[in-house]
Design brief:
- By secondary structure, the chain is of the alpha+beta class.
- Helices cover 65% and strands 6% of the residues.
- It has eleven helices and eight strands.
- A hairpin with a 2-residue loop joins strand 2 and strand 3.
- The longest helix is centred in the N-terminal third of the chain and has 34 residues.
- The chain is globular, with a radius of gyration of 29 Å.
């Protein structure tokens, strides 16, 4: 039996009448875009006119000039004779350092708190609940000042606490020994990264084999050999160097080793303890969103409570946890700007000093906005990608 092709409905053109919704949409969009463009043009021209009237130079040429400002904590080598561009780069790295560490530690601490709130142990559940309520109700700035007061009032270097050989606590910070990095360590590190990638690829291959045959090859022996065996073997072949650079008191301060300054520790601990309280509630709600039948079925299969939580409940709860968790990671990054209150030299602190010295206020604020916008968008893109990856897909 022959079938006749279905003809598509003819497209209607836009009528020059206000009753046509498509015409109204175009007109309103044109007016809104035009209005926004006019406001931007007016603000820009008015700002340029005011700057010219006051003979204030504009542009980013100041970035190439000598900064002359001291920075006490930096991941890269820095001297006051370096340029403003390098000083601002140090500020960006300091911001990233505390933001990344804060996100990781707040996630771990908040997850443990959220699980503790659902514990069958009455005391543990009540203590976790009390902590969450208190930490969320106290302003973050107050908590930062509290931690900074504790660390800045530690004993001086000559009376520093020495709980472990080579480890010192003082009002100059937390001093620890550091490994003297050698070429053998670099080779071992890159072999570890290569082994991690190879293990991940082997795990994906094992999943394909499991789907095809029902038997999954063991991944952990291969991973152990690639990620631990090869790096250790290379380290041994290259002489197995292992010497520590220990902090030593010389004069009025410690020399050598690594140091975590009081400002960095106060900022990091304040951000972690504050944000973890909110993450705990997100984790708790995500776990409660999983049907109780899932836990009962896992118990009927003989899984322990810990195995049920790790293998059954948390993987399903992630679909509820990830979207609001993105907001908390953004809050950690943006709240790190409060570092200026306790003297930690992040991008806000260094940019403020820069604009005070150069008078380039607009450029300084623009740099701060660009840095936080870039970091926030990067976090959002990554979390959205991960959220889409773990989302349920219909077959």
């Amino acid at each position: 039996m022959a079938t006749t092709a279905v003809r598509a409905a003819p497209k209607k053109g836009i009528r020059l009448s206000w009753s046509d919704p498509r015409l109204r949409n175009i007109v309103w969009q044109f007016l809104v875009v035009g209005g926004v463009a006019y406001v931007v043009w007016y603000l820009a021209s008015n700002t340029a006119q005011n700057l010219a009237t006051r003979n204030i130079a504009t542009g980013f040429g100041f970035l190439g000039r000598e900064a002359g400002l001291p920075i006490g904590e930096s991941l890269l080598a820095y001297e006051p004779t370096n340029t403003y561009a390098r000083a601002l780069l140090i500020g960006v790295l300091n911001t990233l350092k505390v933001a990344l560490a804060g996100c990781v530690l707040a996630t771990i601490f908040g997850t443990l708190l959220g699980i503790a709130r659902l514990s069958r142990n009455w005391l543990m559940a009540r203590l976790a609940s009390a902590y969450v309520e208190v930490a969320r109700d106290l302003p973050l700035l107050l908590q930062l000042l509290f931690w900074y007061a504790i660390f800045s009032n530690m004993p001086g270097p000559r009376q520093a606490l020495n709980p472990i050989d080579g480890v010192f606590f003082s009002n100059r910070g937390f001093m620890v020994p550091l490994l003297n990095w050698q070429p053998a360590h670099s080779v071992a590190f890159w072999l570890f990264l290569a082994g991690a990638v190879a293990t991940w690829l082997y795990a994906k291959r094992a999943t394909v084999v499991q789907m095809a045959t029902g038997n999954r090859p063991k991944v952990w022996p291969v991973g152990l050999g690639l990620m631990l065996g090869l790096p250790v073997l290379a380290w041994l072949v290259m002489g197995a160097p292992f010497t520590l650079d220990r902090p030593v008191l010389r004069g009025f301060n410690f020399q050598g080793g690594g140091v975590l300054t009081p400002e960095f520790m106060a900022l990091l601990i304040g951000l972690v303890t504050y944000t973890a309280a909110f993450i705990a509630e997100i984790v708790r709600s995500g776990i409660l969103a999983v049907s109780t039948g899932q836990g009962e079925a896992a118990g009927a299969l003989g899984l322990s409570r810990g195995q049920t939580l790790r293998l059954i409940v948390l993987p399903q709860a992630l679909r509820v946890i990830i979207p609001p968790m993105t907001s908390q990671y953004l809050n950690v990054t943006k709240n790190s700007s409060l570092a200026v209150a306790i003297g930690y030299q992040d991008i806000v602190s260094i940019a403020n000093t820069t604009l005070n010295q150069t008078g380039q206020a607009i450029e300084g604020i623009a740099i701060i906005m660009a840095v936080y916008l870039t970091i926030s968008l990067s976090i959002s893109l990554f979390m959205n990608w991960y959220n889409a990856r773990i989302a349920l897909r219909e077959r």
